[in-house]
Target: ABC transporter substrate-binding protein
Amino acid sequence: MVEPRPDRARASMRPPGPGLTRRGFLLGSSALGLASVAGCGAMAAGENVNAAPTIAPADGPVTLTYWAWLKDLQRVCDIFNDTQDRIRVEAAWIPGGDGGGYAKILSAVAAGGGPDIAQVELRSVPEFALAGALVELSRYGAADHESAFDPGAWSQVAVGDSVWAIPQDTGPGAFFYNREMLEEIGGAPPATWPEWRELAQEVKGSGNSRWIATLDPGDGSFPVFVAMQAGAQWFRPEGDGWIIDMAGDATLEVAEFWDGVIADELVGTGYGPFTTPWMAAAGQNQILSYTGGSWGDALIEGVPDGAGRWAVAPMPRWEDMGFASAMLGGSSAAVMAHSEHPAEALEFLVWMCTDPAGIDAMVEFSGIGWSPAADYIGAVREQPSEFFSGQSYNEEVIQPMAEGQNLDWVWPPMTQRLNNILGDGMRARVTGGAPLVDFFPRAQNEVLRIMRDVGLDAEVAS
Model:
Protein backbone atom coordinates (compact mmCIF):
# COMPACT_ATOMS: atom_id res chain seq x y z
CA MET A 1 0.00 0.00 0.00
CA VAL A 2 1.12 3.54 -0.69
CA GLU A 3 1.04 5.51 2.54
CA PRO A 4 0.68 9.31 2.54
CA ARG A 5 4.11 10.89 2.68
CA PRO A 6 4.96 13.58 5.26
CA ASP A 7 5.59 16.07 2.46
CA ARG A 8 2.17 15.55 0.86
CA ALA A 9 0.78 18.55 2.74
CA ARG A 10 2.76 20.78 0.40
CA ALA A 11 1.86 18.90 -2.77
CA SER A 12 -0.98 21.23 -3.71
CA MET A 13 1.32 24.21 -3.98
CA ARG A 14 3.82 22.55 -6.31
CA PRO A 15 3.26 22.99 -10.04
CA PRO A 16 1.40 19.88 -11.24
CA GLY A 17 3.34 19.74 -14.47
CA PRO A 18 6.29 21.29 -16.31
CA GLY A 19 5.74 24.87 -17.23
CA LEU A 20 2.37 25.29 -15.53
CA THR A 21 1.52 28.95 -15.49
CA ARG A 22 -1.18 30.87 -13.69
CA ARG A 23 -2.34 32.14 -17.08
CA GLY A 24 -2.36 28.60 -18.43
CA PHE A 25 -4.69 27.36 -15.72
CA LEU A 26 -6.90 30.44 -15.67
CA LEU A 27 -7.32 30.91 -19.38
CA GLY A 28 -6.57 27.55 -21.00
CA SER A 29 -8.30 29.13 -23.99
CA SER A 30 -10.15 32.35 -24.49
CA ALA A 31 -12.93 30.27 -26.02
CA LEU A 32 -14.01 28.91 -22.65
CA GLY A 33 -16.08 31.79 -21.31
CA LEU A 34 -19.25 32.00 -19.31
CA ALA A 35 -21.28 31.04 -22.34
CA SER A 36 -19.80 27.53 -22.41
CA VAL A 37 -20.23 27.01 -18.67
CA ALA A 38 -23.74 28.23 -18.08
CA GLY A 39 -25.15 29.23 -21.42
CA CYS A 40 -25.64 32.78 -20.25
CA GLY A 41 -23.69 34.93 -22.68
CA ALA A 42 -20.19 36.32 -22.96
CA MET A 43 -18.34 37.27 -19.82
CA ALA A 44 -18.39 40.90 -18.87
CA ALA A 45 -14.98 41.20 -17.24
CA GLY A 46 -13.45 37.74 -17.53
CA GLU A 47 -9.71 37.49 -17.85
CA ASN A 48 -9.11 41.20 -17.17
CA VAL A 49 -10.13 40.86 -13.53
CA ASN A 50 -6.91 39.16 -12.48
CA ALA A 51 -4.72 41.21 -14.80
CA ALA A 52 -5.89 44.50 -13.27
CA PRO A 53 -4.20 46.01 -10.19
CA THR A 54 -5.34 44.69 -6.84
CA ILE A 55 -8.05 46.64 -5.04
CA ALA A 56 -6.94 48.24 -1.78
CA PRO A 57 -9.02 47.73 1.38
CA ALA A 58 -11.71 50.35 1.81
CA ASP A 59 -11.19 53.35 4.09
CA GLY A 60 -14.60 52.93 5.74
CA PRO A 61 -17.22 50.29 6.47
CA VAL A 62 -18.24 47.93 3.66
CA THR A 63 -21.11 45.49 3.09
CA LEU A 64 -20.44 42.16 1.38
CA THR A 65 -23.10 40.05 -0.31
CA TYR A 66 -22.83 36.27 -0.07
CA TRP A 67 -24.92 33.89 -2.20
CA ALA A 68 -25.11 30.27 -1.02
CA TRP A 69 -27.44 27.32 -0.52
CA LEU A 70 -26.20 26.64 3.02
CA LYS A 71 -29.10 26.92 5.43
CA ASP A 72 -29.14 29.67 8.06
CA LEU A 73 -25.91 31.15 6.74
CA GLN A 74 -26.91 34.63 7.93
CA ARG A 75 -26.63 33.38 11.52
CA VAL A 76 -22.99 32.50 10.81
CA CYS A 77 -22.38 35.88 9.19
CA ASP A 78 -23.97 37.72 12.12
CA ILE A 79 -21.48 36.22 14.56
CA PHE A 80 -18.71 37.72 12.44
CA ASN A 81 -20.60 40.99 12.01
CA ASP A 82 -20.82 41.38 15.78
CA THR A 83 -17.04 41.08 16.23
CA GLN A 84 -16.20 44.35 14.45
CA ASP A 85 -17.78 47.34 12.71
CA ARG A 86 -15.77 47.51 9.45
CA ILE A 87 -17.27 44.62 7.48
CA ARG A 88 -20.88 43.51 7.30
CA VAL A 89 -21.77 40.30 5.48
CA GLU A 90 -25.30 39.77 4.19
CA ALA A 91 -26.21 36.25 3.04
CA ALA A 92 -28.83 35.41 0.41
CA TRP A 93 -30.09 31.90 -0.22
CA ILE A 94 -29.93 30.49 -3.76
CA PRO A 95 -30.75 27.01 -5.11
CA GLY A 96 -28.01 24.36 -5.10
CA GLY A 97 -25.38 24.77 -7.78
CA ASP A 98 -26.64 22.47 -10.51
CA GLY A 99 -30.21 23.11 -9.40
CA GLY A 100 -30.09 26.69 -10.68
CA GLY A 101 -27.64 28.43 -8.38
CA TYR A 102 -24.73 28.35 -10.79
CA ALA A 103 -26.82 29.75 -13.64
CA LYS A 104 -27.96 32.58 -11.37
CA ILE A 105 -24.41 33.39 -10.25
CA LEU A 106 -22.86 33.25 -13.70
CA SER A 107 -25.66 35.22 -15.32
CA ALA A 108 -25.13 37.98 -12.77
CA VAL A 109 -21.37 37.99 -13.35
CA ALA A 110 -21.87 38.05 -17.12
CA ALA A 111 -24.05 41.13 -16.66
CA GLY A 112 -21.25 42.86 -14.79
CA GLY A 113 -22.62 42.31 -11.28
CA GLY A 114 -23.16 39.41 -8.92
CA PRO A 115 -22.32 38.89 -5.27
CA ASP A 116 -19.01 39.48 -3.56
CA ILE A 117 -18.89 35.84 -2.41
CA ALA A 118 -20.62 32.72 -3.72
CA GLN A 119 -20.72 29.08 -2.73
CA VAL A 120 -19.03 26.94 -5.38
CA GLU A 121 -18.57 23.19 -5.07
CA LEU A 122 -14.91 22.21 -4.90
CA ARG A 123 -15.24 20.18 -8.10
CA SER A 124 -16.61 23.26 -9.92
CA VAL A 125 -13.89 25.73 -8.92
CA PRO A 126 -11.79 25.19 -12.10
CA GLU A 127 -14.87 25.70 -14.26
CA PHE A 128 -15.56 29.05 -12.61
CA ALA A 129 -11.90 30.04 -12.76
CA LEU A 130 -11.61 29.27 -16.45
CA ALA A 131 -14.79 31.24 -17.04
CA GLY A 132 -13.15 34.33 -15.58
CA ALA A 133 -15.73 34.43 -12.78
CA LEU A 134 -13.34 34.31 -9.81
CA VAL A 135 -10.81 36.58 -8.18
CA GLU A 136 -7.45 34.82 -7.90
CA LEU A 137 -6.86 35.20 -4.17
CA SER A 138 -3.11 34.79 -3.89
CA ARG A 139 -3.01 38.37 -5.19
CA TYR A 140 -4.61 39.34 -1.86
CA GLY A 141 -2.41 37.18 0.36
CA ALA A 142 -4.52 34.02 0.54
CA ALA A 143 -1.45 31.77 0.32
CA ASP A 144 -0.23 33.25 3.61
CA HIS A 145 -3.08 31.39 5.31
CA GLU A 146 -2.38 27.96 3.82
CA SER A 147 -1.08 26.50 7.09
CA ALA A 148 -4.41 27.28 8.79
CA PHE A 149 -6.24 24.89 6.44
CA ASP A 150 -6.46 21.13 6.19
CA PRO A 151 -4.10 20.09 3.35
CA GLY A 152 -6.77 17.99 1.67
CA ALA A 153 -9.15 20.94 1.62
CA TRP A 154 -6.48 23.38 0.43
CA SER A 155 -5.42 21.09 -2.42
CA GLN A 156 -8.92 21.45 -3.89
CA VAL A 157 -8.64 25.23 -4.38
CA ALA A 158 -4.94 25.76 -5.09
CA VAL A 159 -3.20 24.99 -8.37
CA GLY A 160 0.45 25.89 -8.67
CA ASP A 161 0.83 29.31 -7.07
CA SER A 162 -2.80 30.29 -7.63
CA VAL A 163 -5.60 30.17 -5.05
CA TRP A 164 -9.08 30.25 -6.56
CA ALA A 165 -11.34 30.02 -3.53
CA ILE A 166 -11.38 29.29 0.20
CA PRO A 167 -12.40 25.74 1.17
CA GLN A 168 -15.58 25.75 3.24
CA ASP A 169 -16.14 22.07 3.92
CA THR A 170 -15.04 18.70 2.55
CA GLY A 171 -16.20 15.08 2.55
CA PRO A 172 -13.44 12.56 3.37
CA GLY A 173 -14.74 9.05 2.82
CA ALA A 174 -15.57 6.52 5.52
CA PHE A 175 -17.54 3.27 6.02
CA PHE A 176 -20.79 3.86 7.93
CA TYR A 177 -22.44 0.60 8.94
CA ASN A 178 -25.27 -1.00 10.90
CA ARG A 179 -23.28 -2.51 13.76
CA GLU A 180 -26.08 -4.79 14.95
CA MET A 181 -26.68 -6.15 11.45
CA LEU A 182 -22.96 -6.80 10.97
CA GLU A 183 -22.70 -8.60 14.31
CA GLU A 184 -25.74 -10.70 13.39
CA ILE A 185 -23.94 -12.21 10.40
CA GLY A 186 -20.66 -12.50 12.32
CA GLY A 187 -18.79 -10.03 10.18
CA ALA A 188 -16.36 -7.19 10.78
CA PRO A 189 -15.83 -3.84 9.03
CA PRO A 190 -13.83 -4.58 5.86
CA ALA A 191 -10.30 -3.19 5.77
CA THR A 192 -9.94 -3.65 2.00
CA TRP A 193 -12.24 -3.60 -1.01
CA PRO A 194 -11.78 -7.37 -1.60
CA GLU A 195 -12.92 -7.90 2.00
CA TRP A 196 -15.86 -5.59 1.26
CA ARG A 197 -16.81 -7.80 -1.68
CA GLU A 198 -16.66 -10.94 0.48
CA LEU A 199 -18.86 -9.23 3.04
CA ALA A 200 -21.27 -8.21 0.28
CA GLN A 201 -21.68 -11.87 -0.65
CA GLU A 202 -22.38 -12.78 2.98
CA VAL A 203 -24.97 -10.03 3.32
CA LYS A 204 -26.73 -11.04 0.11
CA GLY A 205 -26.87 -14.63 1.32
CA SER A 206 -28.23 -13.72 4.75
CA GLY A 207 -31.77 -12.88 3.67
CA ASN A 208 -34.05 -11.59 0.93
CA SER A 209 -33.53 -8.03 -0.30
CA ARG A 210 -30.48 -7.46 1.88
CA TRP A 211 -27.58 -5.50 0.46
CA ILE A 212 -24.24 -4.32 1.76
CA ALA A 213 -25.04 -1.02 0.00
CA THR A 214 -26.98 0.52 -2.85
CA LEU A 215 -25.77 2.68 -5.72
CA ASP A 216 -27.53 5.33 -7.73
CA PRO A 217 -26.33 4.29 -11.22
CA GLY A 218 -26.86 7.78 -12.59
CA ASP A 219 -24.55 9.41 -10.04
CA GLY A 220 -21.20 9.86 -11.74
CA SER A 221 -19.49 11.05 -8.56
CA PHE A 222 -19.03 7.52 -7.17
CA PRO A 223 -16.62 6.31 -9.91
CA VAL A 224 -14.57 9.45 -9.32
CA PHE A 225 -14.55 8.78 -5.57
CA VAL A 226 -13.17 5.23 -5.79
CA ALA A 227 -10.72 6.01 -8.60
CA MET A 228 -9.40 9.00 -6.67
CA GLN A 229 -8.73 6.76 -3.66
CA ALA A 230 -6.91 4.25 -5.87
CA GLY A 231 -4.42 6.98 -6.82
CA ALA A 232 -5.76 7.90 -10.24
CA GLN A 233 -5.03 11.38 -11.51
CA TRP A 234 -7.45 11.87 -14.38
CA PHE A 235 -6.61 15.49 -15.16
CA ARG A 236 -3.25 17.22 -14.93
CA PRO A 237 -2.58 20.84 -15.93
CA GLU A 238 0.63 20.93 -17.95
CA GLY A 239 2.02 24.00 -19.64
CA ASP A 240 -0.99 25.87 -20.98
CA GLY A 241 -3.05 22.72 -21.43
CA TRP A 242 -4.30 19.51 -19.87
CA ILE A 243 -3.21 15.87 -19.81
CA ILE A 244 -6.12 13.39 -19.52
CA ASP A 245 -5.55 9.95 -18.00
CA MET A 246 -8.90 8.24 -17.38
CA ALA A 247 -7.76 4.79 -18.55
CA GLY A 248 -4.62 4.21 -16.51
CA ASP A 249 -3.83 1.09 -14.49
CA ALA A 250 -5.44 2.33 -11.26
CA THR A 251 -8.67 3.30 -12.98
CA LEU A 252 -8.96 0.04 -14.92
CA GLU A 253 -8.29 -2.04 -11.81
CA VAL A 254 -11.10 -0.19 -10.03
CA ALA A 255 -13.34 -0.64 -13.09
CA GLU A 256 -12.67 -4.38 -13.18
CA PHE A 257 -13.56 -4.66 -9.49
CA TRP A 258 -16.90 -2.89 -9.90
CA ASP A 259 -17.66 -4.80 -13.09
CA GLY A 260 -17.50 -7.95 -10.98
CA VAL A 261 -19.61 -6.47 -8.16
CA ILE A 262 -22.32 -5.39 -10.60
CA ALA A 263 -22.24 -8.63 -12.59
CA ASP A 264 -22.68 -10.65 -9.38
CA GLU A 265 -25.48 -8.33 -8.24
CA LEU A 266 -23.80 -7.64 -4.91
CA VAL A 267 -25.20 -4.12 -4.55
CA GLY A 268 -28.70 -2.78 -4.91
CA THR A 269 -29.26 -0.46 -7.86
CA GLY A 270 -32.97 0.23 -7.57
CA TYR A 271 -32.54 3.32 -5.40
CA GLY A 272 -29.67 5.46 -4.22
CA PRO A 273 -28.41 6.21 -0.71
CA PHE A 274 -30.58 8.41 1.54
CA THR A 275 -33.65 8.23 -0.70
CA THR A 276 -36.99 7.44 0.91
CA PRO A 277 -36.82 3.72 0.00
CA TRP A 278 -33.22 3.57 1.23
CA MET A 279 -34.21 5.01 4.60
CA ALA A 280 -37.07 2.52 4.91
CA ALA A 281 -34.83 -0.42 3.98
CA ALA A 282 -32.05 0.72 6.33
CA GLY A 283 -34.56 0.97 9.17
CA GLN A 284 -35.59 -2.65 8.49
CA ASN A 285 -32.00 -4.00 8.57
CA GLN A 286 -31.89 -4.51 4.81
CA ILE A 287 -29.03 -2.07 4.10
CA LEU A 288 -25.77 -2.74 5.92
CA SER A 289 -23.64 0.25 5.03
CA TYR A 290 -22.85 3.44 3.20
CA THR A 291 -19.33 4.21 1.96
CA GLY A 292 -19.07 7.89 1.16
CA GLY A 293 -18.44 11.41 2.39
CA SER A 294 -18.27 12.24 6.09
CA TRP A 295 -21.38 14.41 5.71
CA GLY A 296 -23.34 11.18 5.37
CA ASP A 297 -23.45 10.94 9.18
CA ALA A 298 -26.16 13.61 9.46
CA LEU A 299 -28.30 11.84 6.86
CA ILE A 300 -27.86 8.41 8.41
CA GLU A 301 -29.15 9.85 11.67
CA GLY A 302 -32.50 9.94 9.88
CA VAL A 303 -32.67 6.12 9.70
CA PRO A 304 -35.73 4.99 11.69
CA ASP A 305 -34.77 3.47 15.04
CA GLY A 306 -31.10 3.69 14.08
CA ALA A 307 -29.76 5.35 17.23
CA GLY A 308 -27.15 3.20 18.94
CA ARG A 309 -27.15 0.63 16.12
CA TRP A 310 -24.77 2.31 13.67
CA ALA A 311 -21.00 2.85 13.82
CA VAL A 312 -18.20 4.20 11.63
CA ALA A 313 -15.01 2.58 10.32
CA PRO A 314 -12.26 3.61 7.90
CA MET A 315 -12.98 3.49 4.19
CA PRO A 316 -11.91 0.12 2.72
CA ARG A 317 -8.56 0.38 0.91
CA TRP A 318 -7.28 -1.00 -2.33
CA GLU A 319 -4.77 -3.72 -1.46
CA ASP A 320 -1.72 -2.71 -3.49
CA MET A 321 -2.25 0.92 -4.43
CA GLY A 322 -3.73 4.22 -3.48
CA PHE A 323 -4.63 6.07 -0.34
CA ALA A 324 -6.53 5.67 2.90
CA SER A 325 -9.50 7.69 1.69
CA ALA A 326 -10.86 10.03 -0.96
CA MET A 327 -13.11 13.06 -1.02
CA LEU A 328 -16.77 13.01 -1.97
CA GLY A 329 -18.46 16.40 -2.08
CA GLY A 330 -17.51 19.62 -0.38
CA SER A 331 -17.76 23.31 -1.18
CA SER A 332 -15.72 26.46 -1.33
CA ALA A 333 -16.50 30.11 -0.80
CA ALA A 334 -15.22 32.05 -3.79
CA VAL A 335 -14.75 35.79 -4.31
CA MET A 336 -16.53 36.75 -7.51
CA ALA A 337 -15.02 38.70 -10.36
CA HIS A 338 -16.87 41.99 -9.85
CA SER A 339 -16.44 42.29 -6.09
CA GLU A 340 -15.22 45.74 -5.13
CA HIS A 341 -13.94 44.45 -1.79
CA PRO A 342 -11.91 41.26 -2.32
CA ALA A 343 -9.54 42.00 0.58
CA GLU A 344 -12.44 42.31 3.02
CA ALA A 345 -14.10 39.21 1.55
CA LEU A 346 -10.91 37.21 2.09
CA GLU A 347 -10.67 38.44 5.68
CA PHE A 348 -14.18 37.23 6.41
CA LEU A 349 -13.69 33.89 4.68
CA VAL A 350 -10.49 33.10 6.56
CA TRP A 351 -12.32 33.82 9.81
CA MET A 352 -15.35 31.71 8.86
CA CYS A 353 -13.31 28.73 7.71
CA THR A 354 -10.53 28.63 10.32
CA ASP A 355 -11.65 30.45 13.48
CA PRO A 356 -13.29 28.10 16.04
CA ALA A 357 -16.25 30.47 16.31
CA GLY A 358 -16.77 30.32 12.55
CA ILE A 359 -16.40 26.53 12.36
CA ASP A 360 -18.76 25.96 15.31
CA ALA A 361 -21.34 28.29 13.77
CA MET A 362 -21.20 26.56 10.38
CA VAL A 363 -21.55 23.15 12.03
CA GLU A 364 -24.43 24.23 14.26
CA PHE A 365 -26.44 26.40 11.90
CA SER A 366 -25.48 25.27 8.38
CA GLY A 367 -24.62 21.61 8.89
CA ILE A 368 -21.39 21.74 6.90
CA GLY A 369 -19.38 18.64 6.08
CA TRP A 370 -15.86 18.14 7.40
CA SER A 371 -14.14 21.23 8.75
CA PRO A 372 -11.65 22.88 6.37
CA ALA A 373 -9.47 24.05 9.28
CA ALA A 374 -6.11 22.41 9.94
CA ASP A 375 -6.49 21.88 13.65
CA TYR A 376 -10.14 22.28 14.63
CA ILE A 377 -13.00 19.92 13.77
CA GLY A 378 -15.70 21.68 15.80
CA ALA A 379 -16.61 21.39 19.48
CA VAL A 380 -19.64 19.18 18.84
CA ARG A 381 -17.58 16.77 16.77
CA GLU A 382 -15.07 16.30 19.55
CA GLN A 383 -17.75 14.54 21.62
CA PRO A 384 -18.89 10.89 21.49
CA SER A 385 -21.99 10.26 19.38
CA GLU A 386 -24.98 8.61 21.00
CA PHE A 387 -26.41 7.71 17.60
CA PHE A 388 -23.18 6.07 16.44
CA SER A 389 -22.94 3.68 19.38
CA GLY A 390 -21.18 6.13 21.69
CA GLN A 391 -18.22 6.28 19.31
CA SER A 392 -15.99 9.36 19.03
CA TYR A 393 -15.88 8.63 15.34
CA ASN A 394 -14.91 12.08 14.12
CA GLU A 395 -11.59 11.95 15.94
CA GLU A 396 -11.09 8.18 15.67
CA VAL A 397 -12.04 7.69 12.01
CA ILE A 398 -12.86 10.81 9.99
CA GLN A 399 -9.79 12.79 11.00
CA PRO A 400 -7.37 10.03 9.86
CA MET A 401 -9.39 9.66 6.68
CA ALA A 402 -9.04 13.38 6.01
CA GLU A 403 -5.28 13.11 6.50
CA GLY A 404 -4.89 10.16 4.14
CA GLN A 405 -6.25 11.49 0.85
CA ASN A 406 -5.02 11.83 -2.72
CA LEU A 407 -3.77 15.42 -2.70
CA ASP A 408 -2.63 15.26 -6.31
CA TRP A 409 -6.19 15.10 -7.67
CA VAL A 410 -7.16 18.10 -9.84
CA TRP A 411 -10.69 18.75 -11.06
CA PRO A 412 -11.18 19.52 -14.75
CA PRO A 413 -12.96 22.60 -16.12
CA MET A 414 -16.05 20.60 -17.17
CA THR A 415 -17.17 18.63 -14.12
CA GLN A 416 -20.90 18.65 -14.86
CA ARG A 417 -20.38 17.14 -18.28
CA LEU A 418 -17.90 14.65 -16.81
CA ASN A 419 -20.45 13.63 -14.19
CA ASN A 420 -23.09 13.11 -16.90
CA ILE A 421 -20.74 10.95 -18.96
CA LEU A 422 -19.85 8.80 -15.96
CA GLY A 423 -23.48 8.50 -14.89
CA ASP A 424 -24.47 7.34 -18.37
CA GLY A 425 -21.69 4.74 -18.33
CA MET A 426 -22.65 3.41 -14.91
CA ARG A 427 -26.33 3.28 -15.84
CA ALA A 428 -25.53 1.37 -19.02
CA ARG A 429 -23.36 -1.10 -17.11
CA VAL A 430 -26.11 -1.82 -14.58
CA THR A 431 -28.61 -2.50 -17.37
CA GLY A 432 -26.32 -4.94 -19.16
CA GLY A 433 -24.31 -2.56 -21.28
CA ALA A 434 -20.57 -2.27 -21.84
CA PRO A 435 -18.22 -3.25 -18.99
CA LEU A 436 -16.58 -0.35 -17.19
CA VAL A 437 -13.13 -1.49 -18.34
CA ASP A 438 -14.31 -0.78 -21.90
CA PHE A 439 -16.27 2.32 -20.97
CA PHE A 440 -13.44 4.35 -19.42
CA PRO A 441 -11.20 4.47 -22.53
CA ARG A 442 -14.23 5.62 -24.56
CA ALA A 443 -15.14 8.18 -21.89
CA GLN A 444 -11.58 9.48 -22.02
CA ASN A 445 -11.89 10.10 -25.75
CA GLU A 446 -15.25 11.82 -25.29
CA VAL A 447 -13.81 14.11 -22.60
CA LEU A 448 -10.86 14.89 -24.87
CA ARG A 449 -13.24 15.87 -27.66
CA ILE A 450 -15.32 18.11 -25.38
CA MET A 451 -12.27 19.91 -23.99
CA ARG A 452 -10.92 20.53 -27.46
CA ASP A 453 -14.33 21.65 -28.72
CA VAL A 454 -14.40 24.45 -26.14
CA GLY A 455 -10.91 25.52 -27.17
CA LEU A 456 -8.75 23.88 -24.52
CA ASP A 457 -5.38 22.38 -25.32
CA ALA A 458 -5.78 18.77 -24.18
CA GLU A 459 -3.95 15.49 -24.81
CA VAL A 460 -4.37 11.90 -23.64
CA ALA A 461 -1.54 10.58 -21.46
CA SER A 462 0.95 8.51 -23.41
Summary: The longest helix spans residues 436-453.
